[in-house]
Design brief:
Elements (H helix, E strand, L loop, with lengths): L2 H7 L14 H12 L10 E6 L2 H9 L13 E8 L4 H21 L3 E2 L8 H5 L6 E10 L30
Antiparallel strand pairs: 1-2, 2-4, 3-4
Helix pairs in contact: 1-4, 2-4
Amino acid sequence: MDFFETIIKNKRYNSFQSEESLNHDQLKQLLACAQLAPSLSDIQNFAYIIITDPNLKATISEKIANKEINIKNAAVIFAVVAVQDENDDKNIIDAIIASNQLILAATTMNLGTNLIVDFDNSIEEILGLNEELTVIGLIPVGKTVDKGYLGLKRSIKDMAFHNSIHSRFEFE
């Protein structure tokens, strides 16, 4: 699958098939794609907690605000953890850029994903994090049950401006 096919195929998935696991090579490949992402500060002050324990996945799935999302059967859930320090904003942006690369890599591997950011903060306690660390997102990865959700998309002409916000970019 080429890059543009991956972009077109990438959707949000809310339900996953019963626990098909990913092997260590697949996990390493996904994390390598995240690790190779560009970084604002060249520090990459974030980490991923790889969650495969069925009971822990079920507990975390219950903490998601949108009850239509069920990630307990995902093969793996990556908890995206950022360091809270004087570089908070850079750490979070770096983690999001890297996570997007992980998501695109999973899509290329014909796996479904979703970036979930609305959840109960008790997840941090469940994962044993100290006050310097915060979970900024959850990324379930696995074979999916649903067809995915692309969401509403604005037209390109409504997003593109030329030299100022007051002049739309005109495509030929």
